Recover the amino acids of this structure.
């Protein structure tokens, strides 16, 4: 945004106030400051923050920005890790913190209609009372909003069995970059009338339209769950177990993976009790009817057993489950201890390529002299690759950039994708053309222009500088 | 297509021959005739039929049509019911009958990469050998192609548990209306880099791009299945049972519904043994591990039991299962006996609105003096509504059109959609704007123009005349 545009934004303050009232517009630098960052730790201070409380107000705000070419960044709670909600061109932030209503919970049709500012956890709590859950479960669920989850197509461990937002949203109400209302999708679990704009908008990171209402597909809570922990000599045997588990009919609802480096860190920074020669670890959970969980757990145990298996524990009580998860939960604090500014990527490779990925990452770790710790959602091949660096050391930062470049090449060579759930935002926009060919990328950019001809919605995101 | 364009198509014959060879181009009227119809029983004879055998040939054909503005209709096996593959402007048909290769079956990653001309059944047979299935199962599965299934987002009974193509396709290779190759999606079960063009193309009925390769997500075959038949006094109690079944955690993999009119027909035209006062019937199937099927069937029985239940049978042997399905299978021949040219719509309403839908249809049946028979995929609220008319009687045809109009109003008033799996094609193009608002529909049309600026791909389909 040019200085002139920011001046214009300031000049338009009365108009924003007339749309949503003075209490719902912020422009004091101290007030707008917190709306300039996200969990990428990048920050740009917006000129104006708007806090609408209705669909109509959102529409009017977008219309005003469209007419005056003001950059507009929709915002949930800023838990994203790619800078997708940082207002890099300053301008206007549209925060959904006052749009947190349940519009409808329709138990008979397994549908919840919600405003985008509500947190994922609030939805789980509310629909949980009726015996349902909404499958997407990013780690940030307690804080992140449904709108943010949808904008980024955020998933989490349960995606392996229950899918991502794309498999769990029926329809949207949204405002395009022209300030026009659209309704996409249906209220039913089937519908083939017209093009699927719902999924086009899901994962588009606020660059196509501003979601004002979402029709979510609810899933009945399973009767029961069982948690298993399998420890392996090495990554190869753990990966072999992942493939075996994924080739039999009992689909776990989580299948989490922790590599040898991560186990070493856990051992150093927590009291978790793990075999000395542990080279990799899987945490596997199955859910379903109580009557068949024993059998389901047995099927998983059979598939998880190979010559590299060192230890296999099944938890049945809450205390035992907590004990198994304590290992996984020890990981984040341990990593934060060592490298507060670690680089956390969320690459994906086909499940059978996990061993090649980890082997490749070990080589890159040695080549660039950077410690790399891997864990993640193995059932989807979605590995969180953590480069532990001291970001105050410019030389380490430079090395980490070269290393990251190599990591992405490795992932693409293994038929993978650069992001499974974090998205592109600012962080990966200049890498996207390594994954997507020019014709396809150009078509995406043309779609962007169609929805948002003045390029006001979350500008300078997703697409490379060159486009 | 104008007469000039058809002359041009004829004049370009040598160029098509040079792309794919004389054996792969048809232009004799007797040869091209069968490529002019689909199961809508509509027919327009194309000028030229091309039978490419590779992605590159498809690209060259589309490029030639793009350069010369020739209408091009991609075609599977013509099993669609909406006229979506009828070449209404004549021009060129691109039949995928010679593109039937399995490019890859990757058991470790649960992925099958196939050419679009392969039939659904051939995929099921082939991946079945490895212990997998592909969930979409339209009734036409034995004949219809994967390309056709994807173009129409065709589903079937199993969608209730396993979803439609949108939930079971990872990526596509395709040629846009400009003759340019694009690759969409990923090879993994997660991926959030760029916009979701895969789902945009699925269900677009060949109007955006021609699919040349599809990456399908395979699902492991369940260990075991159980089939139940529940007979009810009336539609209200059957619908109540559907809601109860859908509100508990055991999700059946089929939940089929047959109304009183349909039962009456079955009784007249088959030897099926049904209680005299049967007013509605459900066929319900559960699958999973053998160890828990007893329990799963019990959960379904509990949910299916209400004061209107007349009879509940569970089949365990193949013979018993066949006996239960004989009722459902008696329906199609019975309907064909009565009305060979019946109108078969596939409307969808929220599950809880099924009773209101059936009640409304009964009223419309009386109002327009047309017998209406309903059956379908109750778990998705997807009801096949059959208007039994004698299409040789112009007066009945007129009445049926008025009735259809009222049916669509009823469905939309019940928060439903005009089609759950058949699509729009020619049949519903002039109704689409009753479901989709002008702004959203216009955006879809602009997307069409972006992908296909010369409007060569399946022209005069999906969008109303007025657009």
């Amino acid at each position: 945004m040019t200085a002139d545009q920011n001046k214009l934004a300031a000049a338009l303050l009365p108009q924003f106030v007339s749309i949503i009232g003075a209490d719902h517009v912020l422009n004091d630098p101290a007030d707008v400051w917190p709306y300039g960052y996200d969990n990428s730790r990048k920050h740009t201070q917006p000129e104006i923050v708007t806090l609408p409380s209705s669909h109509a107000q959102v529409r009017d705000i977008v219309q005003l920005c469209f007419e005056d070419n003001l950059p507009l960044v929709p915002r949930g709670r800023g838990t994203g890790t790619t800078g997708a909600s940082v207002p890099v061109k300053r301008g206007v932030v549209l925060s959904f913190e006052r749009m947190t209503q349940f519009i409808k919970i329709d138990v008979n049709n397994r549908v919840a209609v919600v405003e985008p500012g509500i947190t994922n956890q609030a939805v789980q709590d509310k629909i949980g009372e009726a015996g349902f859950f909404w499958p997407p479960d990013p780690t940030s669920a307690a804080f992140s909003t449904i709108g943010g989850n949808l904008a980024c197509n955020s998933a989490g461990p349960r995606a392996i069995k229950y899918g991502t937002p794309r498999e769990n949203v029926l329809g949207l109400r949204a405002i395009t970059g022209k300030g026009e209302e659209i309704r996409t999708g249906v209220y039913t679990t089937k519908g083939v009338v017209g093009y699927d704009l719902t999924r086009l908008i899901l994962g588009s990171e606020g660059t196509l339209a501003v979601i004002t209402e979402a029709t979510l597909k609810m899933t009945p809570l399973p009767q029961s769950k069982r948690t298993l922990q399998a420890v392996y000599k090495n990554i190869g045997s753990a990966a072999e177990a992942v493939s075996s588990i994924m080739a039999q009919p009992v689909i776990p609802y989580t299948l989490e993976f922790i590599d040898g480096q991560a186990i070493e860190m856990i051992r150093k920074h927590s009291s978790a009790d793990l075999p000395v020669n542990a080279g990799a670890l899987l945490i596997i959970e199955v859910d379903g009817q109580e009557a068949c969980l024993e059998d389901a757990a047995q099927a998983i145990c059979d598939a998880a057993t190979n010559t590299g298996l060192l230890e296999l524990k099944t938890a049945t009580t809450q205390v035992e489950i907590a004990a198994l998860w304590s290992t996984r939960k020890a990981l984040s604090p341990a990593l934060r201890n060592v490298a507060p500014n670690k680089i956390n990527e969320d690459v994906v490779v086909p499940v059978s390529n996990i061993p090649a990925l980890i082997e490749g990452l070990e080589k890159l770790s040695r080549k660039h002299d950077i410690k790399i710790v891997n864990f993640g959602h193995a059932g989807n091949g979605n590995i969180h690759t953590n480069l532990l660096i001291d970001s105050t050391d410019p030389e380490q930062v430079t090395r980490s950039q070269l290393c990251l470049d190599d990591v992405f090449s490795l992932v693409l060579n293994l038929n993978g994708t650069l992001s499974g759930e974090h998205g592109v935002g600012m962080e990966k926009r200049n890498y996207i053309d390594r994954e997507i060919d020019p014709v396809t990328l150009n078509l995406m950019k043309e779609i962007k222009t169609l929805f948002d001809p003045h390029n006001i919605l979350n500008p300078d995101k997703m697409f490379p500088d060159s486009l």
Remarks:
- Chain A touches chain B through 94 residues (CB under 8 Å).
- Residues 318-338 of chain A form the longest helix (21 residues).
- Chain A is about 35% helix and 20% strand.
- The longest strand of chain A covers residues 209-217.
